[in-house]
Amino acid sequence: MTQTPGAVFALGLFAALWLLAGLWAVGRGIAMQRRSAFVAAQTERLASLVEASPYLPVVVRADWRIEASERLGRWLGLDRDPRNFDELAGIEQGLDRDGLEALRQAILGAQRGARVFTLSLRPQGGSRTLIIQGSAAPVAIGGPGCVLLWLSDATEGEQALADMRRERNEAMAAFEALSGLIEAAPFPMWFRDTDLRLALVNRAYVRAVEAGSAAAVIEGGVELCEPVAGVSAADAADEARTAGTAQTRTVPVTLEGERRIMRVVDVPLAPEGGHPIGVAGYAIDVQELESERGAHRRFADAQRELLDRLSAAVAQFGPDQGLVFANQPFRRLFDVDADAIADATPFARLLDAWREEGRVPEVRDYPEWRESHVGWFASAGASEEEWLLRDGTHLRVVAQPTPDGGLLLIAEDRTEQVQLAGARDTLLRVRTATFDNLFEAIAVFAPDGRLHLWNQRFRRLWGVDEARLAAHPRVDVLMSGLADRLAKPNQISIVQEVIRAATLERTQRAGQIRFGDGRHFDFASIPLPDGNALLIMLDVTDSRRIESALRERNEALEAADKVKTAFLSRMSYELRTPLTSIGGYGEMLQAGYAGKLDPQQQSYVDAIMESVAVLGRQIDNVLDLAQGEAGTLAIERAAVDVRGLLGQALADVKPLADAEGIELVDNISVDLGTIEGDALRLSRLVAGLLDNAVRFTAPTRRTGGRVLLHAEGDPRGVDIVVSDNGPGLPEAVAAVTRGERAGTPSGGIGLALARQLVAAHGGTMEVLSEKGQGTLVRISLPRGA
């Protein structure tokens, strides 16, 4: 087939065009492939960026389908990824119903009105907090009705915000508390700014400067402290700021119109490592402190002046063991000069000097003795020693550590007392020898009926072993074993009754007895001033010696009377003098003259003073009883409030009744009025009767014991009744004849002294007792003398 050139050209041109089109298509495909790969890479990168972003995008379509990454399920705590809106809520995970509904309403608002919203939701079952920001999504993302949500995890931010809020609240509360404390402080406080001008003052400052308000003080720059030596308050604050530490000064200040001494403190305030932000200050009134210091100095001077007047030698050592004070007796006794005090000579060096002068005891190991005595400064309590010096001086040395680490040293010269004690021992030996060589048989019985003293003639007369007498038997036990020595054994009761009359009734009785061997004896019992009874037995067998025996007996009785008088006077002195010394030293210890006592030491001193008081009352009772027996008992006459007296007696015996488990009952009339009498002795009378009733009832009635105090009055007088439900006296007659109850734990005031005191006041006393039913004591006192 033959083709024309035109056809060949057209065919070639078409093929060329086709080839060009193919080449363009291939190039275009390659470019599109490269573009697709770039877009895919960009898409993957964007997806990674979105996945790594703290924000999670969520698309909610118009049909409520959800497009989101897998993180949405993890953030909500769901087991699977949600695909529609309702799957965002679960039973124990995801959003709760209220949160889901709030989110639904916000999405509806964004769909309808294109409103932007922000919600804070907390999924169930966790502590995560999600912030959801939503708005209408661009049409390119999901079409009309789509909403784009951005979720962010705000858990850490919310926690940090909560911590900051809490810290802020705590700081504000602390600041308010501190401000309230400063405002309520009873002393002036202030704050100066960086220019050292007043910026804050409290109410005490305002009152001190007598200003109307804190604002007026700050505005007027009213200073509390006046310039002293050209230094103003601001200058002092500037010095504290420059020094960087608190500065203290004591200046006179006028407070509310009164001149006072104040201690002013300026404190520079600056953050750690920063520049000062101001200076705070406060002022404390030390007027009373300075006054007390002056009073303390005056007291110390007066105390040292008093110590100089004491007879006892007293020295004070400081915490450094140096001598700081010594009174005149101490200087004389230990030959201490003024230079030793001025130089504060150590205690150890003084001991060495005293040893050379013979003012300390001679000991075998002096270094050890010296070290132990230096240890007095560190001891827990007082130390007491007896020093026998080589010149024969006897010293009683007491070392009391003081609270400040020092030592109070007291030395008492007891040489004369030791000599008197030796003389007393000699006198006792002379008395014993005198008793043993007397012609009469003599025995002394104590108030409780026990044999106290006897001579050898008494022992030989009754034929009793020394060991039996040394056991100090009671008179009834002793005499019951001696009845067979008498011609008439029943006469032994006469001896017992005579001794009982002297010890209990304080009356002198006499009698005669005949022994089985034919010897006749006159005997008598004599009450002694100390409460004992003296039994004297005289052999009157030989008729030819009757006159001589009577004369000797008369002389013996006169001597016994003198001995009794001297014995009463001597024993009163012997008892009262050491008792007064004990009480005096006890009061000094209580008053703190020997230093502050710890609780245990205080209890010891209190026990000593209580025993001194008890012993003093017992001595007074014995002396009153002796004076009453002698008819020399002096009664003071004054108006006595009977009700108050009885109330005080009940209060005094109440601790004993509580300790013994005894019920104490009172039935005191309110209109007792007053009587004329001795208040002190009447108080002891009632207290003694109550004490005896409690003590006598307690051993027999551990439960149910009861003591009654009854009192009533009329125009003529007052009747006082003390009764108990104890075992009662052995027989009703004994209640009249005996002065005290036999077997009571404590003698108390005694019925004998009570009867004498009542009689001295012009009254009467009646004692009624029934065995097993108790005892009743009735006292009737007239209004006047």
Automatic annotation (TrEMBL):
GO molecular function: phosphorelay sensor kinase activity
SMART domains (alphabetical): HATPase_c, HisKA, PAS
Keyword Acyltransferase listed: no
Keywords, comma-separated and alphabetical: Kinase, Phosphoprotein, Transferase, Two-component regulatory system
Enzyme class: transferase
SUPFAM superfamilies: ATPase domain of HSP90 chaperone/DNA topoisomerase II/histidine kinase (SSF55874), Homodimeric domain of signal transducing histidine kinase (SSF47384), PYP-like sensor domain (PAS domain) (SSF55785)
Domain Histidine kinase: 570-785
Catalytic reaction equation(s): ATP + protein L-histidine = ADP + protein N-phospho-L-histidine
EC number(s) given by UniProt: 2.7.13.3
Gene3D superfamilies: 1.10.287.130, Histidine kinase-like ATPase, C-terminal domain, PAS domain
PROSITE patterns from the UniProt entry: HIS_KIN (PS50109)
Protein name as it appears in the record: histidine kinase
